[in-house]
From TrEMBL:
<comment type="similarity">
    <text>Belongs to the homoserine dehydrogenase family.</text>
</comment>
<feature type="active site" description="Proton donor">
    <location>
        <position position="206"/>
    </location>
</feature>
<dbReference type="InterPro" id="IPR016204">
    <property type="entry name" value="HDH"/>
</dbReference>
<feature type="binding site">
    <location>
        <position position="106"/>
    </location>
    <ligand>
        <name>NADPH</name>
    </ligand>
</feature>
<dbReference type="GO" id="GO:0009086">
    <property type="term" value="P:methionine biosynthetic process"/>
</dbReference>
<dbReference type="Pfam" id="PF00742">
    <property type="entry name" value="Homoserine_dh"/>
</dbReference>
<keyword id="KW-0486">Methionine biosynthesis</keyword>
<dbReference type="InterPro" id="IPR045865">
    <property type="entry name" value="ACT-like_dom_sf"/>
</dbReference>
<dbReference type="InterPro" id="IPR005106">
    <property type="entry name" value="Asp/hSer_DH_NAD-bd"/>
</dbReference>
<dbReference type="GO" id="GO:0050661">
    <property type="term" value="F:NADP binding"/>
</dbReference>
<feature type="domain" description="ACT">
    <location>
        <begin position="352"/>
        <end position="429"/>
    </location>
</feature>
<keyword id="KW-0791">Threonine biosynthesis</keyword>
<keyword id="KW-0521">NADP</keyword>
<dbReference type="InterPro" id="IPR019811">
    <property type="entry name" value="HDH_CS"/>
</dbReference>
<dbReference type="GO" id="GO:0004412">
    <property type="term" value="F:homoserine dehydrogenase activity"/>
</dbReference>
<dbReference type="GO" id="GO:0009088">
    <property type="term" value="P:threonine biosynthetic process"/>
</dbReference>
<dbReference type="Pfam" id="PF03447">
    <property type="entry name" value="NAD_binding_3"/>
</dbReference>
Amino acid sequence: MKNINVALLGFGTVGSGVAEAIRKNSRIMEDSIGCHFTISHVLVRHPEKYRDMDLLQGIHLTSSFDDIIADSSIDIIIEVMGGIHPAKEYIFEALNHHINVVSANKDLVALFGPEIMHTAMENHVNFSCEASVGGGIPILRPLHDSLAANEIESIVGIVNGTTNFILSNMDDSGVSYGDALRVAQKKGYAEADPTNDVAGYDAARKLAILASIGFHANVTFDDVLVEGIEKISQNDVQYASEMGYTIKLLAVAIRQENGIALNVYPAFVPRSHPLASVKGSYNAIYVTGNIVDDVMFYGKGAGSLPTASAVMGDVISTAKHILNHSTGTGMMLTETKRIPFYSSLKLENSYYFRLIVDDVTGVLSQIASAYADNDISIKEVVQKSRIEDAAELMIITEKTPRENIIHVEKALQVLPCMRQVANVVRVMEDDRK
């Protein structure tokens, strides 16, 4: 039986999960493709800290990438270090040395995916990155292969477990944003500095990768407009629930007649929509194709073994290519053309406004005039509470372009009666046929 030698770059949460997956399911993998996987090298910063770990017995531990590149027996390098540097340099060097690479690095793939894929093809080796989006959820290869007969019309996803845990906790338990964040940090779902997650940047990187594959285009993180969840309050969550919605951070890629639009933002999601039921740290990606219609991919979006499952899927696929002498074919991110982008300012949505205003006569007429002046129709106005001499208003608009919303928000802020434009959130409609 042929042996496939693997080198791991990094041995954190995902790296240890990969080693555990190989040990736990090696027989299943051998039966599946007829070869044996051996981890021959592990690259870590301080090898002495890992020498007594059971998972690493008999494995060469090194802090030098040169040790790995110099070993001609290595068939696949698995990069699970994260970050841009030195991961980028290691991946390009491996590909240029004709070594296949599997990566879970969303930051790197979101910025350099097509360039990496092109380098892999030039050197007749594979580069795979299924684990860079959605943890254990199979999504990139299904987008590229299973849905290849479709023109993808939209991709709407909950792709960040931290924010979904926070918003789910606020919805289910009635806690504040700050308290929900602290619980997420205590449970290990959120970092000490949660900015990358709560500001939407992590979701934007994953959306860039999804859109690149789904729309066959060169899309990077810089092409995504991003809004986070920091302004979402318990009041917003409560009012959403009263109207039959829950709030989710959505990553949204939409194909328009004149191009594609890419956005990450919090939104009111109807409880009738499948995405509304995605709770806790779970992820889901809802894809609409012009032939298949709607499909949803759901599962754990992070974690040691779920992410290792996606990594090993790529490793097994690469091993099959090695056995068939077909590496360097079927790359997912090889398209280098830039396709038109549709201005997100033109996209139409309904919007929720929460306003704090003076509790005096004539306030509603001032507010209504501001909306009318910006060609926005109001669907609903509800006074939610009184706070001393102020009132809290909830307003839902009809569908209107984003640019009109920006203009009316500025107009509202300078009204004499306005204390605060407390929040403005998109309202998603359940348009399923």
